[in-house]
């Protein structure tokens, strides 16, 4: 019998068995603690809550500038910028993502959720990803940005193509299908948004695209900065929220007593959102690069090495959360790391929470039974965990 430390030496975050079910591996990493070196990928892995949170806040030591996916690809966007550039970009766009600003979108989100649930109730049985988890986030982002309804399918296709970048694990070859898919998605989105920026410059509208083009503190975002922010908003606001919705419903399937509690306790909606983010973190982890030697316990990570911050493992740390592998909607773990921490905490977290809370609120009011209706298919992205197929049967309230 191979003991856990020996088994863990073969840990590869991009291996198919790890992607299919990372949590047994996370338990081994958490038991080992400290910084674990994955020889398979030549990266250091942090798993414990305190270590991941501290690393997420160590901006002087751990850089995002070489990208947060496995491949070292510098991109001129907020997520992959260090201070002071990051501070400037975040200051210029944050006004539209405060809790108060996001609350203005609640009627739009509720209307969209009601429309989707109307259709789901008519169908009775369906794939939740196709009917709700997939189209809802892209519809919300499109409404916020001011994108016409007719163009939403294209936005979803571009978003899916760009997300392929998080699956790249081998040396980049410009001829590879995966790289070509990402490049095509980025190029088509850029061409579309360039036209949209020109239209807003000529005639501003009451939408986020127009507001992003306004002066803020005496300066304005350039076209390239605007594009990369919109790309970030599209991918982060679409893919991660899609995963959050799917992961939450799947958790409720696997813990039917929690669905009963949610239906019976309207006040449990907000806590359910937080527990879902902790229990099934849509973003499993992001990478950093050590810009100087970085100590984790008795281990020092050398300058220049890549470091994987496993948010999902940290959110299952038994030293921080009691009985962490249990889904409990009364837990309300508001200190989870599903949205990261410190300067790189997810700018769109309030919008994601609003969408998920609205979905749960409408479902609990209009649906008596939320039931599985066939085999579930998980996504195969090592960094972004979700479901690709989730057959559901609804019984109206």
The first-to-last residue Cα distance is 51 Å
Tell me the overall shape.
Answer: globular
Helix content: 40-55%
Q: Spell the H/E element sequence.
A: HHHEEHEHHHEHHHHHHHHEEEEHHEEEE
How would you write the strand order of the largest sheet?
Answer: 1-2-8-5-3
Q: Write down the CATH topology.
A: Cytochrome p450
DSSP E strands, number = 12
Helical region count? 17
Strand content: 5-15%
Describe what is shown at a glance.
The protein is an alpha+beta fold and 397 residues long. The protein has helices at residues 4-8, 16-20, 23-32, 49-57, 85-93, 99-103, 106-123, 128-133, 135-145, 152-163, 177-202, 208-212, 223-254, 256-264, 269-279, 311-314, 349-366, and strands at residues 35-38, 43-46, 62-63, 125-127, 286-290, 294-296, 299-301, 306-309, 367-372, 377-378, 387-389, 391-396. It has a single domain (4-396), classed as Cytochrome P450 (Cytochrome p450), CATH 1.10.630.10.
Question: Any overview of this molecule?
Answer:
The protein is α+β, with helices and mostly antiparallel strands and 397 residues long. The chain has one domain: Cytochrome p450, CATH 1.10.630. Helices cover 49% and strands 11% of the residues. The chain contains 17 helices and twelve strands. The strands form four sheets. The chain has a five-stranded mixed β-sheet with strand order 1-2-8-5-3, with helices on one face. Helix 7 packs across helix 17 and helix 9 packs across helix 10. The longest helix is centred in the middle third of the chain and has 32 residues. About 1% of the residues have low confidence.
């Amino acid at each position: 019998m191979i003991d856990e430390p020996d088994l863990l030496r073969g840990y590869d975050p991009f291996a198919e068995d790890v992607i299919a079910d990372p949590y047994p591996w996370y338990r081994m990493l958490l038991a080992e603690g400290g910084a674990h070196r994955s020889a398979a990928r030549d990266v250091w892995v942090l798993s414990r809550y305190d270590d991941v949170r501290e690393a997420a806040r160590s901006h002087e030591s751990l850089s995002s500038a070489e990208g947060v996916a496995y491949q070292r690809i510098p991109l001129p966007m907020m997520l992959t910028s260090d201070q002071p550039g990051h501070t400037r970009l975040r200051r210029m766009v944050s006004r539209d993502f405060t809790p108060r600003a996001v609350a203005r979108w609640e009627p739009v989100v509720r209307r969209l959720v009601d429309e989707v649930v109307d259709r789901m109730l008519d169908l009775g049985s369906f794939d939740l990803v196709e009917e709700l988890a997939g189209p809802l986030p892209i519809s919300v982002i499109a409404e916020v940005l001011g994108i016409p309804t007719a163009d939403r399918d294209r936005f979803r296709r571009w978003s899916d193509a760009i997300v392929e970048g998080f699956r790249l694990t081998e040396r980049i070859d410009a001829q590879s299908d995966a790289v070509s898919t990402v490049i095509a998605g980025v190029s088509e989105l850029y061409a579309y948004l360039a036209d949209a920026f020109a239209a807003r410059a000529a005639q501003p509208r009451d939408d986020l695209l127009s507001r992003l083009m306004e002066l803020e503190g005496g300066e304005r975002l350039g076209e390239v900065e605007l594009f990369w922010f919109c790309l970030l908003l599209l991918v982060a606001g679409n893919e991660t929220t899609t995963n959050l919705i799917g992961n939450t419903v799947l958790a409720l399937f696997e813990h039917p007593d929690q669905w009963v509690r949610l239906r019976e306790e309207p006040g449990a909606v907000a806590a359910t959102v937080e527990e879902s983010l902790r229990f099934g973190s849509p973003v499993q982890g992001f990478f950093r690069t050590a810009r100087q030697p970085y100590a984790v316990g008795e281990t020092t990570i050398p300058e220049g090495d890549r470091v994987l911050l496993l948010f999902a493992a940290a959110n299952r740390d038994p030293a921080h959360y009691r009985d962490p592998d249990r889904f409990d909607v009364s837990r309300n773990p508001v200190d989870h790391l599903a949205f990261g921490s410190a300067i790189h905490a997810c700018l769109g977290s309030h919008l994601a929470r609003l969408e998920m809370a609205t979905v749960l609120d409408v479902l609990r009011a209009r649906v008596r039974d939320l039931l599985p209706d066939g085999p579930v298919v998980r996504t195969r992205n090592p960094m972004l965990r979700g479901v690709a197929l989730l057959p559901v049967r609804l019984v109206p309230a």
